[in-house]
Amino acid sequence: MVDDFLVARNPEPGSTLPFLIRLPLGPSGIVLKAREAWPRTAKVYCHRAEWPDDAEIVERTAVRSCVRRGAAIDLVLERGRENRSQFVLTHVKGREAIFWQTARTAKQARPQGRPPTARAGGRESLDIVVDSHERYAWKFSTLPVTLSKAALAAGDYGVLADGVLVASVERKSLADLVSTLTGGKMRYLLAALAALPHAAVVVEDRYSKVFSLTQVRPLVVAEGLAECQARFPSVPIFFAETRALAEQWTFRFLAASLDEFENESAAAARIEALPSVELPNIELPRLDAPGRGRRRAQPRSGNSEGSTGGPSPAVIRAWAMAEGLPVADRGRLRPETVAAYQAAHEAGSEQGA
């Protein structure tokens, strides 16, 4: 299992991508050749590659996390600076392209490489299903939306993929939110939404209005919202300020959720197709800068409580009690008690010899 981020020299002569990088994703890792060893000033173009048997390692850094999310791979390294980056699998003019970027070199990762438009996710139209129990439903009249009605398992507005509900939004006015929260129904509602791949609650008001409530204590509502969000972190509760903004946010959230769901399987197939080669079982040099990277565990002193290679505190405590030495029933043993135990047993060993 590859567990470090590796950078090596590309052995191909005259290559415009002089570096090889190895990501610890999967049992064998993913290998790419890159124009730079790190995206410092601009996005770095990458291409599929193979790891040579005699790779010249120029950097090896411990990895905190390496996770695929849709058409992107998020990499976090165990060092103080230049530690967060992202690999985005996209298409440029119909051809596959891989870009390595950081927050400084890209304001937002767009895995499909589409520029922002008035449409959501570049779709000509979005098919939204409105729950049959929803009263006074949004019309999305200014947006490219096709509406239909059906009974939804959770939420008021949803999108389907192959007949399966993959994203849903529960719409609330502030009064409805307060009633649902204080009436004890909010947790059941959030539990149903959390079972979906993507879900959210959108409120047609500002969060500051919570503290202007008069029929119920504002603190009760604020703490109840915080508890619900902590228990169900996958279901955000979004205050959209107005009805029109709530409608707009729901439209774009559902479109983005549907895009993410549809791209997941295709992205997984593309990432699995990236070449990987098992590393030989050898110890490679670690070239992290001083003070950076994974901290080495310091050996514990021999007389510390719970240290390995010596008697347990319970053994020493039982011996001290038998010898009449003052010792507490629990807690850390005093150094002089441990020293007395060691001295007594060392003397016994010498006599036995």
Q: Could you characterize the architecture of this molecule?
A:
The chain has helices spanning 174-182, 186-194, 218-231, 243-272, 313-323, 335-352; strands at residues 4-9, 19-23, 30-34, 44-48, 57-69, 72-77, 84-92, 95-101, 126-131, 145-150, 157-161, 164-172, 198-203, 237-239. The chain contains six helices and 14 strands. It is an alpha+beta fold and 353 residues long. The chain has three domains: 4-113, no CATH class; 126-270, 3-Layer(aba) Sandwich (Rossmann fold), CATH 3.40.50.10130; 313-352, Irregular (Dihydrolipoamide Transferase), CATH 4.10.320. Mean pLDDT is 83; it is low at 108-117 and 296-308. It has an eight-stranded antiparallel β-barrel.
**CATH-defined architecture of the largest domain:** 3-Layer(aba) Sandwich
Enter the CATH topology name of the largest domain: Rossmann fold
**Strand order, largest beta sheet:** 1-2-3-4-8-7-6-5
The proportion of strand residues reads 25-35%
Average pLDDT across residues? 83
Element-by-element helix/strand order? EEEEEEEEEEEEHHEHEHHH
Which CATH class of the largest domain? Alpha Beta
